[in-house]
Amino acid sequence: MNAGLARQALRKQPWAFAGPFVTQCLAAALVSGALGANSSMSGARLDPVARQALTDSGIPEMAALFVVLAVYLTALIVGLTMTSSIARQTRDIALVRAVGATPGRVRRAVAAQAAVVAVPATLLGVPLGALLARAWLAGLTDHAVIPPGVTFHPSAAALPVALTITVGTSLVGALLAALRPALVRPATALTETSVARSRAGLVRTAIGVLLVAGGVALSVRISNGDPAKADGASFFTMLAMCVGAGFLGPVLLRLTAPLARLLGGTGVLAAENLAVRAKALSGALVPLVLAIAFAMVKVVVHTTSGHVHGRPDRAAEVWTDYSGTAVCVAFAAVAAVNTLVTVLLSRRRELAVTRLVGASRVQALAVIVCEALVVTLTAVIVGTVVAMVSVVPMLHGMLGTWTPHLPPGQLTLGLAVVVGLVLLGTVAPALVVMRRPPVESLVVDP
Fold first, then answer.
1. What is the predicted pLDDT for the residue at 383?
2. What does DSSP assign to residue 148?
3. Rounded (10°) CA dihedral 339, 344, 346, 349
4. Could you tell me where the DSSP H helices lie in 59-102?
């Protein structure tokens, strides 16, 4: 019966699991690529001069740090995306509980879904990671950052490590999402799916506050510490504050939701929707804020350095930093889009009812756009704050300045990318969902 429940869930909501599949595939690629690049450099057969040149370049240390970052990133984001997907099944879980399924059987079925998605995604992602790592090492060689003798060799640990992370975090995320609907009475679970819980829990809020406070404290410590270690430590500062922002997401979105009311009647409806959907949408804040903060920190470090020294940093150094950053930012951005798509797909019934009571497709879409703008604004504000708290102490330690420098052109480009990502994750799936007549949507997704 467990396999039957899992198979039925995958058949009924294939697109809900497409997002986690893509995210886990990229997560496996990130981990396997980082491990492969690290093992290729440590195991390269180089003469003493070339080995010393490789060590002096700092790339082996960067690759080792990248492995740690990849593990932390994938564990966090894979768990979040799977949690969002399983959360869509709360009503279905309540129904199977109502017809006699035990909590243990529900948990086993949810675990089976997580494994069925994670294993093939990982098997596909590991060779993709090998290709990316090979290309990255080739780029480093072309830019004369590392000696030509360093060639890519796959890491034997890539597959087992990637499987452990993706399957393990998927299982944890899925079981956490199914914990409450599997334990409470079916009637209570069905009631909660009909009326969304609009308040964030005190425990969740307290954890968010502690994580943000911890990130700020670590940032202060970085400003008084060794500048050589500031770059690596700043990531963990960002990570703590980004996860904290995710826990505080419902509170943050409710604070910014009233801004939608400035857009008239459509904005009023969008503000009310955001207040109700704040908990679901907060899952997208973590990868969005992480992508914004990580990209901004790396760009600000190089632009401020060029501004202070009066000349740009070496092209090879900039390429090395930006290429590694681009991989992490792209992974977080894809995860954010997947989470937004998952949340939007769970609103098919709501959109159908909205159209049945008189709203046109354009009016329903306008509400989605208003919501997307508020989510974008929230992510940009929080991401900028996180980036500044992380990078300003680092700039003081490395360059002796407290003032970051970011050219307006790059700032505008970054803002346009964030807006595009959020619209891609909200408006695009809304257009697809609303192509179907509303009555048909209610029949298909009762």
1. 92
2. T
3. 180
4. 59-87, 90-98
Burial letters for 21-53: b for 16+ Cβ neighbours within 10 Å, e otherwise? Answer: bbbbbbbbbbbbbbbbbbbbbeebebeeebbeb
Q: Cα–Cα distance between 1 and 107 in angstroms, integer?
A: 12
Q: Given this model, what pLDDT does residue 382 score?
A: 93
Q: What is the mean pLDDT of residues 308-318?
A: 80
Domain boundaries, the chain: 1-195, 198-446
pLDDT tens-place string over residues 331-359? 888 888 888 888 887 788 888 888 888 88
Which tokens go with 279? Answer: 């908990």
**3, pLDDT greater than 70:** no
Average pLDDT over residues 241-247: 86
DSSP E strands, 155-218? none
Place of tokens 């704040």: 278
| Structure token digits, residue 367 | 């509400």
If one counts every other C-beta atom within 10 angstroms of the C-beta of residue 308, the result is 15
Kindly indicate the confidence band of residue 203, based on its pLDDT and cuts at 50, 70 and 90: confident
Q: CA-CA distance, 272 to 266, in Å (whole number)? A: 10
Sign of CA dihedral 233, 239, 244, 245: positive
Q: What is the mean pLDDT of residues 291-298?
A: 89
Task: Provide the 8-state DSSP code for 229.
Answer: G
* CA dist., res. 353 & res. 273, Å (int): 14
Q: Is the dihedral of CA 281, 287, 290, 292 positive or negative?
A: negative
> Rounded to an integer, what distance in angstroms lies between the CA atom of residue 38 and that of residue 65?
9
- Rounded distance between C-alpha atoms, residue 153 and residue 40, angstroms: 5
Of 115-124, 249-258, 307-316, 360-369, the range with the lowest mean pLDDT is 307-316
Percent of the chain predicted with pLDDT > 70: 88
Give which of 412, 444, 273, 241 is closest to 348, Cα–Cα.
444
Q: CA angle 34-35-40, nearest 5°?
A: 100
Give, as one character, the DSSP assignment of residue 401: -
The Cα angle at residue 189 between residues 186 and 190, in degrees rounded to 5: 85
